[in-house]
Amino acid sequence: MIKYNEFKEVCQKSIQMIEAAGLLLTRADKQKMTAADFGLSHIKKEGVQILTMFQTDRIAGKILVLLPFQTEPEHWHPTVGDDAGKEEVIRAISGDLYFYIPGENNMEKGFIVDGKEDCYTMRNEIVMEPGDQLELPAGTKHWFQAGEKGAVMYSFSTTVTDLNDQFSDPNIVRDTIIEKEPNSI
């Protein structure tokens, strides 16, 4: 569960990071900013902030934000029934972004979240600079992390099937629960 004030804080910081990267956000965009803690209750360590720019039955575009040293947990977009699984293209916009995918263990910049060695198994590190792009075929196990500056990136994908995502961490819950706003009934 995310405390309401912490949810507002990470969303506001993410909006500031997007704007500092030179992207224009409308008032409606700012109101759509959300955050996911994956049920782990420590969003500044493991989580991601998300602004869905568009989503149709076939494609989606999002801006993803990681605060400094924040990590999105290891996951993959599986085939489900007739759906081949979500294909995703990540394009770095600003900050320090490290992606981890299958391949040789060459991890140097990032770190494994304390006590979670079994939950972060991909160690092939791709250091992404602003403008770099990474294609993730459906079913590719991956996770990503920000360095000291945090990171802002685009995520373009086929139909969003996030509720079908699979995670290496058995403690992850897909729905983010936000504590009620103080003074609300």
Explain briefly what this protein structure is.
Helix content is 12%, strand content 36%.
Question: How is the secondary structure organized here?
Answer:
Layout: H1 4-20, H2 27-32, E1 34-36, E2 48-55, E3 59-66, E4 71-76, E5 88-101, E6 124-128, E7 133-136, E8 142-158, E9 166-167
Antiparallel strand pairs: 1-2, 2-3, 3-8, 4-8, 4-9, 5-6, 5-7, 5-8
Kindly report how far apart the N and C termini lie: 18 Å
From the spread of the alpha carbons, the general shape counts as globular
- Share in β-strands: 35-45%
Helix/strand class: mainly beta
Tally of DSSP helical segments: 2
Order of H and E elements: HHEEEEEEEEE
Which spans of ≥5 residues are poorly predicted at pLDDT below 50? none
**Helical residue percent?**
10-25%
Give the averaged pLDDT, no decimals. Answer: 94
Q: Largest beta sheet, briefly?
A: 9 strands, antiparallel
**Rg result:** 16 Å
**Extended strand count:** 9
Structure characterization notes:
The protein has 185 residues and is mainly beta. It contains two helices and nine strands, in the order ααβββββββββ. The chain has helices at 4-20, 27-32; strands at residues 34-36, 48-55, 59-66, 71-76, 88-101, 124-128, 133-136, 142-158, 166-167. Strands 1, 2, 3, 4, 5, 6, 7, 8 and 9 form a nine-stranded antiparallel β-sheet that branches. It is globular, with a radius of gyration of 16 Å.
